Amino acid sequence: QVQLVESGGGLVQPGGSLRLSCAASGIMFSSYAMAWYRQAPGKQRWLVASISSGGTTTYAVSVKGRFTISRDNAKNTVYLQMNNLKTEDTAVYYCKASLSSLEYWGQGTQVTVSS
To answer: How many CB atoms lie within 10 A of CB 29?
Structure first.
């Protein structure tokens, strides 16, 4: 069974940092593109960052320069390093694995940025 297990969410102060992890199982991880999405209260889910199987990255404008997506194929894990966090970064963060028409989603992890 395919599973994406997220960890690292929590409460952090504005300007602080947090690293999210998403560990995948049941797929050939290195073949999949990975991505992080987020959904703030009352808003749609939007792409935050993505990384291809070859390591090419993309970022939403709002997080570019602050967030870094990376992957460790040996650990079947994708990371999202979040620095200089802002209150507007507060959201549920979801990881996604995709390959062609296949898509798998994690259950999400809450990130709250508040003083």
So the answer is: 20
Strands 45-51, 102-105: pairing kind: unpaired
The token pair at 1 is 């069974």
46-66 confidence digits (pLDDT tens): 999 999 999 999 999 999 999
E strand spans, 2-114: 3-7, 10-12, 18-25, 33-39, 45-51, 57-59, 67-72, 77-82, 91-99, 102-105, 109-113
Q: Do 36 and 69 contact (CB within 8 A), yes or no? A: yes
Mean pLDDT score of the chain:
97
Helix (H) or strand (E) run with residue 28 in it:
none
pLDDT cut 70: percent of the chain above it: 100
